[in-house]
Each structure stands twice: as C-alpha cells, then as structure tokens.
Amino acid sequence: MRKNTRRLWIGLFSLVLCGMIFSGCSGSKSEVKVKVGEVTRSVFYAPEYVALSKGFFKEEGLDVELQTIPGGDKTMTALLSGAIDVALVGSETSIYVYQQGSDDPVINFGQVTQTDGTFLMARNGEGKVDWNQVKGSTFLGQRKGGMPQMAGEFTLRKHDIDPQKDLKLIQNIDFANIASAYLSGTGDYVQLFEPQASIFEKEGKGHVVASFGEESGHLPYTVFMSKQSYIKKNSDTVQKFTNALQKAQNWVQQHSPAEIADAILPYFKDADKDIIVSSVQRYKDQGTYATDPIVDDAEWNNLLDVMSQAGELKEKVQAKAIVDNSFAEKAKSSVK
Hints:
ABC transporter substrate-binding protein; alpha/beta; signal; SsuA/THI5; 48% helix
C-alpha cells in the first residue's frame, strides 16, 4: 500500500514538473504580429532587412510581416486603410496627410535613412557630372511630390537649373517602371536607387555621375511611421519595434559592406552579391544609414525647405506635430 502511494506521488510530481518545463519552453507569450509596408525593395533599407534576418524583431517578441507597396501614395493609402500597421516611407507623406486635416495623423517614430537614396545616371559620360550639360537634356524623373523628385529638383536648382524650364522633365512613368523605361531608351539622365544603379553600370547602360544624397544634405528621408491611434493603442509594440531598429542600426554601423550584403541577400534573391556589396558601400560612404531612429530638428527643417522649393508645402509643419521621438530616444539609451 505504501509503495503504491509512493508511486502515485512520484507520478503526480513528474507530471507537474513536466508541465512546468513545457510551459517554460513554449514561451510565456506569443509573438505580436506587425504588418509592415515598405515603399520599395532597395539596399537603401538595409537596416530593415538586417532587423529581420538577424532576428532582432523576434528578440523583441514581434512577428513582422513585410510587403512591398511601390510608390509613397500607395503605401500611405495602405496605412490609412489599415491594410498595414507600420509604413516605411518618406516623411513627406505624413506631412501631406497632416495638411489634409486628418483626425488621426500619421506619426514618424523611427528614422531609417538620413539622406536621399537616388543617384544621377548618365547614358553618356562618366566621372563627375557637368551640370551645364544637364540643361536641355531629357531627364527621367520621379513621381511629383515624392521625396526623390523633390530632392532631385532641390539639387537641380542648387546648380542653377530650373527643372520645369531648362530640361525636358518626364514624370508620367510609374515608380516601379522607371528603370525599365530608361533601359528601353527613355531619357538622357535618370534618377535611380541602388542596387539598380550599380546593375546598370555593370551592364554598361550608363554611369553614376552624382549622388542626390550628398547634394541635398541630411533629411528624415525614410522613416517608420504609423497612425496616431495605432501608436496610442500599441505603444509597447512600437517601443519593441524601435528597439529592434536600433539593434539593426548598431549592427550596420559595426559591420562591413560584405557582411551587410550577406545579411540582406535573402531579400534580393536574384541579385549578384558583388552588386549588393557595392550598393551598400555607396550608401555607407555617404552616411545614408541613420545611426539611431531619432528625427532631429535640423533634418526636419531641411525637409521643409526641400518641400517648400518644390511647391508642395502649404504651411510649415512643426516636427512636434507629427514626430514622436520618445520611442527612439528610449531605444538609443537602452539598446547597446
């Protein structure tokens, strides 16, 4: 009788112990899903892909579902409609929403890139561009009101070129088709992101002759943002998301272009590794990747100047109206 009782207690203890172990191993909490929409797939967004490939989002308990939605207008539409939770897109889109008097403004909370990411490619010529030769040319630009186009126009004006009068500016080609339009023979010059610029150089289709990132200075060019209502309801998730971004930014700063290329190659399956390395190198050399997620006042004011010159700014929007640096500041101070 005593033996049977003893066996019973040992059995019950074993069941409880196994249950405790199983509970600990399975994780006390399930991951929170976050739907993210990026405006394009580009080496320009290397920290985002590093956060995914290195598991930084996972470490924060987030299950990030990434999709590419070409064009800032389309990405913002997806965010406003609730199709995505977070957008990686130019800060100008949040200003456009604010200018329309939205009851639920879009808030910038995590900067990824701090310069323009496009390069001027010339069909003929190499070395540094002679801006005088750009006058009278056919220039294949970007979408009106988008950051690439506004930064491009800002640069052209800096070199005494009126984009509306001094050249034939083509802006009626959809963002996703600009590269193929250039490839088919449209334009003497084109504004391209990496890795497309490096690919065309390797194929002998043209030469990069200028960097709009270097020309237009520091801007909150591409930022993670979400609707104010989402941030208020999910502040813990937004903080974890920003922590993961800071981890990725630290990692990018500490590693070589070749190491970064290895980390992000899964997101560029058909790309040549050498092309990815050279693209990352270009962006690192010009300080494109932000070292932390904070949008500072100098960058914001430069953005307003660029938009104002492009005629896209109805009023000067103070950063405090649609920028929340609290998550970025906390991530910068706590993530090592």
